[in-house]
Amino acid sequence: WCKHNSKENHAEIMQAVRLPLMSLTELLNVVRPSGLLSPDAILDAIKVRSESRDMDLNYRGMLIPEENIATMKYGAQVVKGELKSALLDGDTQNYDLDHGFSRHPIDDDFRSGIEIKLGQPSIINHIRILLWDRDSRSYSYFIEVSMDELDWIRVIDHSQYLCRSWQKLYFPARVCRSVLWSYSSK
């Protein structure tokens, strides 16, 4: 863009570039030689990147209002959990002990769970979960979201509650790529 447009707009355009989302290699080997940004701007981006949690960076995500994006239609996939194939098919009526749901073992560090990787980075603020409701069990759980599957932010914590059936969960909007549901106690 900068090669084909006047130099007076370069600064305004460059302010829209999310430099802290670039890797150190990109900043040093692509951005720096371009001469489009001052060394201070590059150093500021490196400082923000090194001092911030990944989930606190200003990621861009897709917003699809009032639509279940955790489906195969949108490229989502279950990467952790048992019986993965039927979890994202959208059928919330036909499930039993053999199909239509997922489960996970409970471990001490709470890293096991059901993890769904969305088809693309997405802005979410609402999750609906159907907990197993074909008997009298109740569940405690938490939900975390991540962009890189390393830095997780807890958006829902119902680890001290007994929950059943449909859960309609709201939280402040976050950009994420992965959703982890864990700690199902009976």
Automatic annotation (TrEMBL):
Gene3D superfamilies: Galactose-binding domain-like (2.60.120.260). One of its GO terms (cellular component) is cytoplasm. InterPro entries: BTB_POZ_domain_cont_9, Galactose-bd-like_sf. One of its GO terms (biological process) is adult locomotory behavior. Signal peptide: none annotated. PANTHER family: BTB/POZ DOMAIN-CONTAINING PROTEIN 9, BTB_POZ DOMAIN-CONTAINING PROTEIN 9. This is BTB domain containing 9. It comes from Loxodonta africana (African elephant). The gene is BTBD9.
